[in-house]
Amino acid sequence: MTLSPENHLAAGQAIHERLTRIFRTIFEDKTITLQAETSESDIAGWDSFNNASLIAAIEKEFAIRFRTAELQSLHNVGSFVDVIRAKLEGRG
């Protein structure tokens, strides 16, 4: 299924909003504001333990599973959004 540019943008925004809720819960910080460029170095406590919790929460929220290669490509929030959107569109 191919989305129109407007729907593609809306899907990305919806994913971003859901990710923000997940990040705020995992890191117990209601002030977290995610940008596409946000990475581990930008969020206090984003270590390997919290990363595993984050991945599990994202997989549950979106009803998806990440492959090992995909996990290795997740360097910032923008890459999370891109991979999640591809999976939800049936391309991942």
Describe this structure in words.
The protein has one domain: Orthogonal Bundle (Non-ribosomal Peptide Synthetase Peptidyl Carrier Protein, Chain A), CATH 1.10.1200. The protein starts with a helix and ends with a helix. Helices cover about 60% and strands about 0% of the residues. The protein has helices spanning about 5-25, 50-60, 70-75, 75-90. It is mainly α and about 90 residues long.
List the helices and strands and how they pair.
Blueprint: H1 5-26, H2 48-62, H3 68-73, H4 77-88
How many separate helices?
4
Number of strands: 0
Element-level helix/strand string? HHHH
> What proportion of the residues form beta strands (DSSP E)?
under 5%
CATH level-1 class:
Mainly Alpha
What is the average per-residue confidence, as pLDDT, rounded to a whole number? 90
Global geometry: globular
User: How many structural domains?
Assistant: 1
Name its key features.
mainly alpha; 92 residues; globular; Non-ribosomal Peptide Synthetase Peptidyl Carrier Protein, Chain A
Task: Describe the structure in brief.
This protein is an all-alpha fold and 92 residues long.
